[in-house]
Amino acid sequence: MTSVAEPSALLALQRATHATLQILTAKLADLDLTASEINALAILADGRGRTISELGAAAGTRPTTLTSVLDRLERRGHITRGARPGDRRVVVVELTTAGRQASETIRRTLSELESRALAGLPAEAIAGFHTVLRALAEVSA
């Protein structure tokens, strides 16, 4: 009798991420956004402006990679980029009214999906999951 080994944590995380992105893309299809654009708007949903470096760190993306995402979001009227008061060399990304509306829809959809996915799991399991995610993020930093 052979047993099937559990997939590695990273492969399981990759599959879960892919499935989550498919669900989000389908649920948010009316917004006509890419996964990267959804991620950026979700990070900005708290209404706090961020520098491109801060946004890149929160998204797990290099600022140079993020630039094309921000270009698209700016063209579509979801964000503005402007100089930080007192330091014109620093660019701050902020949501527009349209961006706030889209980000609220994204935040609500993420919250609903997370609630459905984690319903019934004990708090210790969820805390352990967050510990694993932090450890993986620290290894890649």
From TrEMBL:
Source species, domain of life: Bacteria
Signal peptide: none
Keyword terms: DNA-binding, Transcription, Transcription regulation
HTH marR-type domain mapped to chain residues: 6-138
Record-linked Gene3D superfamilies: Winged helix-like DNA-binding domain superfamily/Winged helix DNA-binding domain
PANTHER family named in the record: MARR FAMILY REGULATORY PROTEIN, TRANSCRIPTIONAL REGULATOR, MARR FAMILY
Protein name stated in the entry: HTH marR-type domain-containing protein
